[in-house]
Each structure stands twice: as C-alpha cells, then as structure tokens.
TrEMBL record:
Pfam families: GAF, GAF_3, HATPase_c_2, PAS, SpoIIE. CDD domains: HATPase_RsbW-like, PAS. SMART domains: GAF (SM00065), PAS (SM00091), PP2C_SIG (SM00331). PANTHER family: STAGE II SPORULATION PROTEIN E, STAGE II SPORULATION PROTEIN E-RELATED. GO terms for biological process: regulation of DNA-templated transcription. Residues 261-288 are annotated as: Disordered. Residues 160-190 form the PAS domain. This is SpoIIE family protein phosphatase. InterPro entries: Bact_Sigma-Reg, GAF, GAF-like_dom_sf, HATPase_C_sf, HATPase_dom, PAS, PAS-like_dom_sf, PAS_fold. One of its GO terms (molecular function) is phosphatase activity. Keywords: Hydrolase. It comes from the Bacteria. The keyword Hydrolase applies.
C-alpha cells in the first residue's frame, strides 16, 4: 500500500541532475528514511543523467513510499532507445565503460529494479527496502518495594520542546520553563544548538543536528539555563510530520537524575517454549555475558562497551581496542578507556613491531613491566601503565583487531589473564567484524553520494577563486576541522598559500597568519596523504614564546595575543596531512587538512579526501586554463581597440561605449577607432568582422591598423577601403567579411563640421538635428572581404551646431526579445529623445535603451560611437 507520494519533472539540461538529487534527498529525509537516502541519491543521479543528458529529454522523478521501503521511478520520453537483450550468464556492463553504469549501480544497490516501456515513454525504476529493525514491544517491570524505586524530586517537570526542520525551537511548554528558567517568548525561534551543551567525541558520534534528523533518539546532554549554569538532562526525541508533510522533532526532557521517567527499558528476548522448558542451569550466550544485553547496534558503541567490560573483567586501570586496516599491516585505535584517548583515537601502530611473540599483534602477549622494555607498547608511552596484556581478534584465522588491558601496577598480569581475555576476544571478534563491515558499507555509500555532489559542484564553475573556496568548504567540517590550499603557479615555483578555512570563523585570521610564517610543504607528486608536522610545531613554539614573554616581561604580541596563540595551537595541534593536487601529470598545488589537538584522521576519511583531491585538482586546473584563456582574450581584445580617444579640435564631442558579449574568453569582432590624420582632420571608423575568435581578431587588427596607415598616406575614403578589401581577400581561407563605416571629419571655424563617409555594408549612421528629426547620414554600399572589384564612393555630410551623428554595430540594432527586434526604426525612435544631450549622454541613453529592450544578456558585441557639434 502506497503511504506517501512525491513527483517532480526536470528539464533536459545538465543542472537538472543536481536538482533531482536534492528533490529525492529532501523527500526521503522528510519521510524519515535517512538509512537509504545515500543509495537513492546515487541511483537517481545516474538515471536522471541518462534521461536529460544522454537521451536529451525531460525526466519525471516519482517517489512512492510504502510500509517496507520506497520505489523511485525515472521516466523519459525516448522509448526508441531499448536495452540490449542479455544472456542471464553475461555481465550487464563493463565497469570501465562510460555507458551502462546506471544499470550496474541499480543491480548493485537496489533491492529490485527494472525497465517498463509504453508507447509514450520509458520508465526505469528501482526499489530500496528499509533495513530490518527489531520490533518494539511494551514491557512491564516487576513489582518493587518502595525503597528500590528511582529517586526523584518532590515534583517532576517534563520539558516538551518542538523543533522545526531548521533546528529552531517552535514550541516551549511550562515544564521547560520550570526546568531552564526561560519563558517561551525568549527562546521560540532560536536554534536548539544555542542552548544545548552537546557531548561530542572528536571525530565520531552524533551531533545535535544529526540527532534531530533521526527518527528516534534517546540520551543525555546539557542545557544552559537562564542563570548560565548547564543543567544535565535526559532526553527522548521523536521525529514526526504534520498533515502537510512538514517534519519536526518532539523533545521530552527531564533532569538527568530523573532519567527513569523517560528511559526506555532494555529489551530482552521473549522466552519461547523450548527455553521455558529448559533447565535453569542452561548456559547463557558468552557474547551476551561479556557485552551485556542489549548489545549496542553501532560499531563505536560496541567497541566502547568492549573495552569497558575488558577493563572490568581484569580489574585494570585502562583498556583499548584497535582495528586492522584493509591490508592488515597497521592497527588503528578505535576505542579506549582510562587513557588520554582523545589524542590516541585513530592513531596507527604497525602489526609487526618487532620479532617474536611480543612484537606482533597476531599473538597474545603479556608485559609484566613496561619500564623494562621501553617503547614495547607505543600506545601506552607516558601514561604511567606498567603491566599490560594484549590479545588478537581473529575471524576465520584473519587478524581483524587487537584488545589490550593495562594497569599501573607492575607484574599484575600473567598468561592466565591472557587466556581469559583471549576467550572473551574470541567471543566478540565476529560481532566486531560484522559491525565494522556494516560501518564501512555505510561510509562507502555515503562517500559515493558525497563525491557525486562534490563533482557536480566543482564542475559548475570555471572561476579559480570560487573553485578554491569550494574545495575548502567541501572538506570543512565534513572531513577536517581546518583546511589550507596551496597553489603552484609554474613548474619549479614555490607553493603559495591561496585559501584558508576553519570551522570556527574567528580562528581563520590567526590560522592564516601562522601558516604564512611556515615553510609550505614540498610539492611531491606521490599519491596519498602524508603527515606534515610543521604547523603544529610552529603553533606550539609560538604559544610557548608568547606565554613566556607575557609572563616574564609583561609584553604581548600585537598580532597574536597569548590567548589567541594558545587557541591557534590547540586548533592545529592534531594531525595534519597533505594531499597533492595533480592534474595533467603536474603538481598544481597541495590540499592540507588538519585536526585540533589530540585528534587524528581515520583511514576512510583520508581515502575519501584523496579521491576528492583528484577531482578538485582537475577542476582547479580547468579553472586556471580558463582564466589564462580569458586573460589572453581580454588582452587581445584591448589591443584591437584604441588605447584612448584623441582630443578633437573645434570642441567637437566624441564618446564611445563598447560592450563585449559572452563570458570574456573569446575575442569579439566589433571594433572602433578615432585618430588624427593631419592637422584639423580626423578619421573615425566602426566595424564588425564576421565571427569571433583568432580568425576574427586577425581581420580586426588588420583593418584597424590598415585604416590608420592608408589614411595617413593621404588616400581618400574609397581608396582606403578598396585597399583594405584587397588585403582581407589576400588572407585566403583565414579571411572574414567585414562591415565598416569609415569617415573623415574636419571641424569648421563657424562651429560646424564637414564629414566624408563611406558605409560598406554597415548599419547606416543616423543624424539627429536640433529639431529632433532623425535621418540616415549615408547610403549602403557593398561590404568588404567578399568581392574583388569594389566601386565605392564617399558622401558628404555637414553637421550643424547641436547636431549629433550616431554610429553603431549590428549588436545594437539586432537586439531581440522573442520575435521582436529593436531594428533601425527603434534606434531612430530612441535617438529622437536625445536632443540637447552631450555625446556621452546620447551614447549612454542608447545603451540603456538597448539593454532594457530584452531581459536576456546580449548575445552579440555592441559598439556605440556618438559625435556632437557644440552649439
């Protein structure tokens, strides 16, 4: 039975793929189906790409929810493209091919999938079932004497808070007011994160934003009261949605010591007939005995419970658990208790640290006194632990981890404790490995979704600075606490610090100041992440020097105060890694990721960062190439235009407006010029070469410089254009036809100006008289670059005081809005409103009218040359 439905249609353009992903993600999260969001987003991305990019049709995405899962359908309008028939024994597609990956992913990730054809469309669908969860049941506790009941205050206050989808408080009851001291009008609309003191284990755990997105959550945290004190509370969160489908979270809160009011009782399996009839001396499951019931359903919870129970079992002072990497050459610290574990988390140690039993994690080992063999267990260096026992976790003979228990008393542990710990490790190894594989699968699917969206974002810009910003914003805080991007301009040049980002914006400036004083990492092209200690070393040295100077001499650094220096040292004091940005077999930069003090990177995060760095490097290099091409094109375009306009004698006003169309990475064909031919005589020209790019630029440069040279040789207008026509035709296949308006102007002593004009295929110049009338100032003649023999003639025009001569390129007259075009008549109508304006004001009014004629950006270059004789 379908319980919810959502549909959307997307146009056949590339950006629709990202929009479709966002639609599916928002829909499923609104339905509370966060467990399958990543898989659904990846599959939708592939299928919508097939529809809008490859098939070239609009795509309709339909999400159908039922009690067991969700079905997503992608419909396109290209039914002629059929799937090839495959033999059941054949592979669906080659993973190395560009095509067919969408169906491969459907086969790999979906519960079921298929393709349906109709006369009008093709429908590719897939189904994702929800993961199985234990069915909840109501439970009843035994009757207890009053003395055994939980202790609470005389009056219990239960705070009821409703949180909207943005994380802001939308409802606040009287119980919450009694607990925390805030009236409702003081907190409604504020984010819950402003009040919550959320417990957070660095690098893992659920944050407040994630907890509010879960369908259910239960646990402890703190809430800052109106008096500034943090009040420990126990909370139960339930995510619901209203009749309009709008999601929100209901939070029930009591004081932590009153958690029995809300805490769910542990689930115990109901006894079946066989168990009821069995002997009371029936042995319990060794795993349940060691871990307890119910067992944590997440890897971190299971590992933490394991080390706590191991420490209790051997009465130790500390315990730790390490998991093996995929190649089983190193062990990674994943849980500990009784140790300064924050700095040890995700630290790595080799599996084979030496020869013999005591140097390998593959065998149980007992160290009666670590001071006798310093460094035998690097993880315990400096912790005060003396005696330690370690045992391997193995599944089918393969090393999956190592479990250790330590104490500060020497000689405490013997082989007997090793056997007990090994017995427990054998009981839990399979459960740990199963939980680890489940986590890896979840991370893999989440990473795939992350990389899909990251690639889409990086491909959406060709701006270098924006690409740098995107690289940093995608890594912070998802992958790291802070990030710095170094760029290498040329082969052999020194790296340059180009972008710095920290999850705490207040620390960015101090972090940037610190990194600017540190030698940048070497641009080594070797793949993978390498550790870089220079930032943390420099930060701690600076913090120590500043603190000593402040304490001993009473001086402070004006740039970095002691507090800021210590905060910066803490911010970069953890592990720092460098990943090379390699594109087209050249190192173009380095991506630096860092953690705060006592934190390290997980291997899965480093692998994801390495994959992201490869995509980011190519995007950054594309942006660099595009920027270089744009700079060259703009420089070439400027060289084809006069550097400045000369001062015309006689007071004649001349003004020019030039607007290049497009993104600036191609040279346009429009140009203009105004130059002095001889004393009192000036040449002017405005032209348009067919096309854009280098060929058009060559003709533009030829025309502008030839006009100046030939005119200054004393040739008249027709002779100048005829010789220019011959020069263009001599270019052969590289030639382009050219429309050109060329003229000579001589200001008169009586205040007017005499003009000689030749209009070779160009829009006719318009003359505006003082009475507001507008008329063409020339007649059309053949354009240049087409015919060899041209018979051109010049026309004489007299501009009286107050008259204006307007010359434009066809980008002005051919400005379009749908089927409408400005045209010569529209231009003349605008010009009639310019009586009495200066030449600059006339050009500006014409440009504003052209821009307002259509809402779209201009598709052609535009040049406007206005000349006015003063009154």
């Amino acid at each position: 039975m379908i319980t919810a439905r959502a549909a959307a249609t997307f146009e056949p353009v590339g950006r629709s793929v990202a929009t479709a992903r966002a639609f599916v993600r928002d829909t499923l999260q609104g339905w509370g189906l966060g467990d399958i969001v990543d898989d659904a987003v990846v599959l939708t991305s592939e299928l919508v790409t097939n529809a809008v990019v490859h098939a070239g049709t609009a795509a309709e995405v339909l999400c159908l929810r039922d009690e067991d899962g969700v079905r997503i359908e992608v419909v396109d309008r290209y039914p002629e493209r059929e799937l090839p028939l495959q033999d059941p024994g054949q592979i669906i597609a080659n993973p190395d091919r560009e095509g067919g990956r969408g169906l491969l992913l459907c086969a790999a990730l979906a519960t079921r999938w298929g393709v349906d054809y109709t006369a009008a469309d093709k429908r590719v669908w897939f189904r994702l079932d929800l993961p199985e969860r234990p069915v909840g049941a109501r439970s009843a506790g035994p009757a207890l004497p009053d003395s055994a009941l939980p202790v609470t205050d005389a009056r219990i206050h239960v705070g009821v808070i409703q949180i909207d989808r943005t994380g802001a408080i939308s409802a606040w009851n009287e119980g919450a007011q009694e607990l925390f001291g805030y009236p409702a009008d003081k907190v409604v609309g504020k984010p819950l994160s402003d009040l919550a003191a959320w417990p957070h284990t660095p690098g893992t755990g659920t944050g407040i934003a994630e907890a509010l997105q879960l369908s259910r959550w239960e646990g402890s945290y703190g809430v800052r009261g109106a008096d500034g004190r943090t009040i420990p509370v126990y909370a139960s969160h339930l995510r619901v949605r209203d009749s309009d489908g709008e999601p929100s979270t209901i939070c029930l809160l009591v004081r932590d010591r009153e958690r029995a009011v809300l805490q769910s009782p542990p689930r115990t399996p109901a006894p079946d007939a066989a168990s009821q009839g069995s002997s009371p001396e029936r042995s319990a499951d060794p795993f349940e005995v060691f871990i307890g019931s119910p067992a944590p359903d997440d890897l971190d919870g299971l590992l933490q419970r394991t080390v706590e129970r191991a420490r209790d079992m051997l009465d130790g002072d500390a315990a730790y658990l390490l998991l093996a990497t995929d190649d089983e050459t190193e062990l990674e610290v994943r849980a500990s208790t009784g140790l300064p574990s924050a700095r040890q988390r995700f630290a790595r140690v080799p599996v084979e640290a030496g020869s013999g039993r005591y140097g390998s994690a593959r065998m149980p080992s007992v160290h009666e006194d670590l001071t006798v063999v310093p460094g035998a267990v690097p993880l315990l260096a400096g912790t005060g632990m003396r005696s330690v026992v370690t045992v391997p976790l193995k599944v089918e003979g393969r090393l999956t981890g190592s479990l250790g228990v330590a104490t500060e008393t020497p000689g405490r542990y013997t082989n007997e404790e090793a056997l007990r710990l090994q017995f427990a490790a054998d009981r839990i190894a399979l459960a740990v490995e199963r939980a680890r594989l489940t986590e890896l699968e979840r991370l893999r699917r989440g990473s795939l979704s992350f990389l899909v969206e990251a690639s889409d974002l990086l491909a959406g810009t060709l701006d270098r600075d924006q690409t740098l910003a995107l690289m940093a914003q995608m890594t912070v805080p998802t992958l790291a606490t802070w990030c710095a991007v170094y760029t290498v301009a040329d082969q052999g040049s020194d790296p340059k610090l180009s972008y710095v980002l920290h999850e705490d914006e207040d620390r960015i400036d101090n972090l940037k100041a610190l990194l600017s004083k540190v030698e940048p990492p070497d641009p080594v092209p070797a793949p993978g992440a390498r550790v870089w200690t220079a930032p943390s070393d420099a930060a701690h040295s600076a913090a120590l020097r500043t603190s000593l100077r402040s304490v001993v001499m009473g001086e402070e650094d004006h740039h970095l105060t002691p507090g800021a220096t210590l905060a910066t040292a803490a911010a970069v004091g953890g592990e720092t890694v460098v990943l090379p940005l390699v594109a087209r077999n050249r190192v173009i930069g380095m991506l630096t990721l860092g953690k705060p003090t006592d934190e390290r990177f997980r291997q899965e995060i480093l692998e994801l960062a390495e994959d992201l760095s490869r995509r980011a490097a190519l995007a950054l290099d594309n942006a660099r190439l595009y920027s270089e091409r744009t700079a060259i094109s703009q420089s070439l375009q400027r060289s084809l235009l006069p550097p400045e306009l000369p001062e015309v004698s006689g007071g004649v006003e001349v003004d020019v407006i030039y607007r290049a169309a497009g993104e600036g990475n191609e040279v346009g064909g429009d140009f203009y010029d105004l130059f002095e031919i001889s004393d009192g005589t000036y040449g002017f020209a405005i032209g348009d070469v067919c096309g854009t790019g280098p060929e058009a630029a060559a003709v533009t440069g030829l025309a502008r410089h030839a006009l100046r040279l030939l005119a200054r040789e004393g040739l008249g207008g027709p002779a100048v254009l005829e010789r220019l026509n011959t020069a263009i035709l001599d270019e052969g296949a590289r030639s382009r036809f050219l429309t050109l308006l060329y003229g000579e102007m001589r200001p008169q002593e009586n205040g007017g100006a005499e003009l000689k004009v030749v209009c070779a295929g160009h829009p006719l110049p318009l003359r505006l008289r003082q009475d507001g009338s507008v008329e063409p100032a020339a007649e059309p003649q053949p354009l240049l670059g087409v015919m060899e023999d041209l018979e051109l003639y010049e026309q004489h025009v007299t501009l009286d005081p107050g008259d204006v001569l307007l010359c434009v390129t066809d980008g002005v007259t051919e400005r379009r809005e749908g089927t409408r075009m400005l045209g010569d008549d529209g231009l003349a109508d605008v010009l009639t409103t310019c009586t009495g304006l200066t030449a600059g004001a006339v050009a500006a009014r014409i440009m504003r009218a052209v821009e307002r004629f259509a809402s779209d950006a201009p598709s052609d270059d535009m040049a406007i040359l206005a000349m006015r004789v003063p009154e």
